[in-house]
Specification:
Chain lengths: 520, 468
């Protein structure tokens, strides 16, 4: 039976292998792989050597790892992969604020199979990594063009690390100026890292609440939070709600008026690449998540790259080494005058830069803009349909067009049926959808869910996801038992303590599990 | 003839038919209607200076392959560079599983849809815990430098102290990462980083200097074992006793591939073990294959102080099922914004999958054998190199995998030597000139299980010629 072309629903059941824990598969004596042995001549030469390892450092007990033949190890992890729904197998438009795009296979094959990236050592002589440095340099030029910034660093290993790095830059900038500023202003609908990462550098963070109508803080409230203590603002636009603040430049100007640095969290620029730039809005520092907006895969939370863009004086503060070009060859500069030094070893996640270069080259200037346009079109299309689903409401900015994402609410359905966003979320997988993202904390929009269809998904994909939401809404109103007992077609059923909060109940490893349940 | 609109394979709704239908549905006449909230002065209407798209996949692949062909790599050349990114054998099954689209393209689902991913994560925890003789860990950090930084921040929270001691000879690339992390805008949150001297003969830490600096203001003492320069520290237990006697945490940074033959730091007193997963099945990838880990016993004081997500076994509603959960999330900034334990976020989770498969394939014997081969190969290389006239080893200590070669008597700089090695298709050891005081003319050589006897002999032959 194929997918019903009228309802767009399908009869789905995810793989359920009931796999044992890898330790339960062990048969003493089996081998999974054999590594190169010690060369016989080397062994002979070193025969009489004693104390190659100091006595106190010799391992006393063999490591308790499982002993399993290769085929079974491969099969076990193949099965675990089948019990995982990445966006290669699922329509995963529900990861709003950070829905992943399609990660083109030609990129994946190249970075994992081409020795000129997979087997390159980061400390090789510069003359032997000219190809890689060229890709770094050119990718930097393209991102400078998209943002209007003057320089980029690809060192940070993720978006949050880029925010952290920006906070370190702000800290050093004011130390160099001899100014004592210890406050950061952000907004409650900016990513939690915009509060958490500056706090890690020692900043006191002001989380500004939004205006109930427009969905972001008023300019007056924003100005009231700024003072000579403000080191920087860390804000997003559009925020998690998908609402674009059209007066953003005035907010940035207000920050500059008190001498603060304007930092723009552009982790997600799906909707505005080539449409509006950080430079024209006046920002000093930004970051892009290359694993998200620029097609690199997410890998279940990394590795990623938070590409850090800097303008004006701030371009001298970015981490080292910096890639430059002298007209003939590409160079790694380790001495950049004001640089904060390092936040990540080597030159960052190089294989991601190769992917991003390929993606940008495949699209070109027109394609980049087309991607942004389609991301927004998909979102506005989805909003118009989803807002008609029974039980769904939307908060803020009524009648305004949203950019790339939207935070919705099941508040009304919760009131009418007792079933809310977590219940819907648990049921999604029964219809083949990996998941949807509710909201960062705190849940200001009640019973929230956040969708972002991106440019990667076709109209048919978006329609199918919407059909699933409609069906689940219908079930909540008409067949609540099927929701309460969901999921039914997933690799496992319900979980009593998914968010366990007592350290005494944390069982992190098989050895703890065995201890807890008295298994030998 | 009218120019046809490009339909991009990665952007299905660039198809003009579909696009028109959807534009009509949302009531937009042209693109800028979709962006009516963006004021005119912020709209960027110029064509971006990005070259036109290479639309065909074949052409794109050729284009990038041609650029990358300007590189040399460690498959065609013989490599003796390590420094936290050593070259190891990676079983094919590791690559097969790591590149599975399901693992590669998944993200933040709860345990139902991504059940298999969480099981693999918890199996990773379980096997690494055996290697380290510990119980708990969070998901990995960006790299070993971040792991050290967060281990130190954990120690400061646990002890409520603001000073840490680390070896002068620690990985120089990590020093800046650590110093950035310990520094604070607020004076009362500032953590002081002090460096412990080393014994010039052995390369081990100088115990007298440690004793002098160690007091009840110290939150943690970190040692690397094996050290960044390969040196094995045989007085771990003594150091551990000194450190814990003043109530500080004893942090040991370890290379996990050594642990089939070397004692787990927890068994000589480490209260926090950290390191980088690189050696457990991650490719060089110009430094892309790095991931920090931190692991401890399961007491609440440790669990409550991790900064990243902790996954573990949860209780199933259907008896007999294995299910997994996200533990103690209140620690994180996802739950408490500015008030979480440091920031967290996208890290290096995919590398947990690689490391899990690697450890499952290797088993106890594999880990013992690979450690033994590295030990013998590196020892063989060091002894042979040290017999070259005017070349010596910097330190007398036993070592694992890496060792410092001193060329100062040869009259040549490491840069000159490496340049000539390159002409022989060899990447020579890392030039330590400028990395530490008095290490000019020294190079850090790395020899692992992938280097054959013939390769080592050829290196020595080349060095002899170069230094003649």
């Amino acid at each position: 039976m194929g997918q019903d072309q009228e309802t767009l629903l399908r009869d789905f059941h995810q793989a359920r292998w009931s796999e044992p824990i890898i330790y339960e598969m062990s048969t003493p004596g089996e081998r999974g792989v054999i590594t190169p042995a010690v060369d016989k001549k080397i062994k002979d030469k070193l025969r009489n050597k004693e104390n190659m390892i100091p006595e106190s450092l010799k391992r006393k007990k063999m490591v308790d790892l499982p002993e399993i033949g290769q085929m079974r190890v491969n099969r076990h992890y193949m099965r675990l992969s089948q019990e995982t729904l990445g966006n290669d197998v699922s329509v995963d438009i529900g990861q709003g604020t950070c829905t992943m795009k399609y990660s083109p296979k030609v990129q994946e094959h190249l970075v994992s199979r081409n020795s000129n990236i997979a087997s390159v050592h980061p400390y090789q002589d510069e003359s032997t990594i000219q190809g890689l440095l060229e890709i770094y340099y050119k990718t930097e030029q393209y991102l400078k063009e998209i943002s209007g910034m003057d320089a980029f660093s690809f060192q940070p290993g993720g978006g949050a690390q880029a925010i952290y790095t920006n906070a370190v830059i702000v800290r050093k900038y004011f130390e160099d100026k001899g100014e004592d500023r210890d406050e950061i202003v952000t907004t409650i609908f900016s990513h939690p890292a915009d509060a958490g990462a500056p706090a890690t550098c020692g900043y006191k963070v002001i989380d500004l609440m939004h205006d109930k109508d427009q969905g972001y803080p008023t300019l007056e409230a924003f100005k009231a939070a700024l003072s000579e203590k403000t080191a920087a603002i860390f804000i997003t636009n559009p925020e998690d709600t998908g609402i674009f603040n059209p007066r953003i430049k005035e907010y940035v100007d207000a920050a500059h008026e008190v001498g603060a640095v304007a930092v723009y969290d552009q982790a997600n620029v799906n909707g505005i690449m080539g449409i509006t730039r950080a430079k024209e809005a006046g920002f000093d520092l930004i970051h892009y998540n290359l694993h998200k907006t620029f097609s690199a895969p997410h890998g279940g939370m990394g590795p990623g790259v938070g590409a850090l863009g800097a303008r004006g004086v701030f371009k001298d503060y970015i981490p080292v080494p910096k890639v430059s070009f002298d007209g003939e060859k590409y160079l790694l500069e380790h001495e950049v005058k004001q640089s904060i030094g390092k936040v990540r070893s080597f030159i960052g996640n190089a294989a991601i830069i190769v992917r991003v270069y390929m993606w940008l080259r495949s699209l070109g200037a027109d394609g980049v803009r087309e991607a942004a346009k389609c991301a927004v079109l998909n979102n506005q299309y989805a909003i118009k349909k989803i807002s008609q689903i029974r039980g769904v409401t939307m908060y803020y900015a009524e009648g305004k067009r949203r950019i790339e994402q939207c935070r919705y609410s099941w508040e009304q359905m919760k009131e009418e049926t007792g079933l809310g966003t977590e219940d819907v979320q648990r049921r999604l997988v029964d219809y083949s959808m990996e998941h949807y993202w509710e909201s960062h904390h705190p849940h200001i929009v009640p019973e929230p869910f956040t969708l972002e269809p991106t440019d990667s998904y076709s109209k048919k994909d978006v329609d199918e996801f919407i059909a699933v939401l409609e069906k689940i809404s219908w079930e909540c109103y008409n067949d609540p038992e099927v929701i309460r007992t969901a999921p039914h077609n997933a690799p496992c059923h319900g979980i009593k303590n998914y968010y366990e909060s007592d350290p005494a109940n944390v069982i992190c490893s098989w050895r703890q599990y065995k201890k807890k349940y008295g298994i030998d | 003839m009218k120019e046809e609109k490009v339909v991009y394979p990665y952007i299905p709704n660039s198809n003009p038919e579909t696009q028109r239908e959807m534009m009509d549905f949302v009531g937009a006449k042209d693109m800028w209607d979709l962006y009516e909230e963006i004021p005119e002065e912020l709209r960027y209407k110029e064509k971006l200076a990005i070259p036109d798209g290479i639309l065909d996949e074949f052409g794109l692949k050729k284009h990038v392959e041609k650029i990358l062909a300007k590189n040399k790599n460690c498959d065609e050349f013989t490599n003796f560079l390590g420094a936290g990114c050593a070259q190891h054998f990676i079983p094919a099954v590791v690559d097969e599983i790591t590149t599975r689209g399901e693992f590669l393209t998944c993200y933040g689902a709860e345990s139902w849809g991504d059940h298999g991913k969480y099981q693999a994560f918890v199996e990773y925890n379980s096997m690494l815990a055996e290697l380290l003789d510990t119980e708990v860990m969070s998901v990995p950090q960006f790299d070993g430098g971040q792991a050290i930084s967060t281990a130190m921040a954990m120690a400061c929270r646990i002890t409520d102290r603001k000073k840490v001691l680390v070896p002068e000879l620690m990985n120089p690339g990590y020093k800046s990462i650590l110093e950035n992390y310990m520094h604070s805008v607020q004076d009362e949150l500032e953590v002081q980083v002090e460096y412990i001297k080393f014994e010039p003969e052995t390369g081990r830490i100088d115990l007298a200097d440690l004793k002098e600096k160690l007091n009840e203001d110290v939150a943690a003492v970190m040692i690397e074992n094996p050290g960044f320069l390969g040196v094995l520290e045989d007085r771990g237990e003594e150091i551990g006793e000194l450190v814990t006697s003043v109530g500080a945490e004893f942090v040991v940074y370890v290379n996990p591939i050594s642990l089939g033959i070397l004692e787990a730091p927890a068994n000589y007193g480490a209260t926090i073990t950290c390191g980088d997963l690189h050696s457990l099945g991650l490719h060089l990838s110009a430094g892309n294959g790095q991931a920090g880990f931190i692991s401890t016993q399961g007491e609440a004081k440790y669990l409550n102080n991790y900064k990243d997500f902790i996954y573990g076994f949860a209780e199933p509603e259907v008896e007999g099922e294995y299910v997994f959960g996200n533990m103690l999330i209140e620690r994180t900034h996802y739950s408490r914004r500015a008030f979480g334990n440091e920031y967290t976020g996208t890290g290096t989770n995919l590398w947990m999958i690689s490391a899990a498969v690697y450890m499952a394939l290797m088993g106890p014997k594999g880990m013992e054998e690979v450690g033994t081969t590295i030990l013998y190969n590196s020892r063989y290389a060091a002894e042979k190199i040290s017999r070259i006239p005017n070349v010596s080893l910097k330190f007398t200590s036993p070592f694992f995998q890496e060792f410092v070669v001193d060329f100062s008597q040869s009259g040549k700089t490491v840069q000159e030597i490496n340049k000539q090695l390159l002409a022989n298709e060899i990447f020579g050891g890392l030039d330590l000139t400028g990395c530490y005081e008095d290490f000019d003319h020294c190079a850090l050589y790395c020899v692992t299980e992938v280097n054959t006897r013939e390769e080592i002999d050829f290196l020595v032959e080349c060095l002899e010629k170069i230094l003649k």
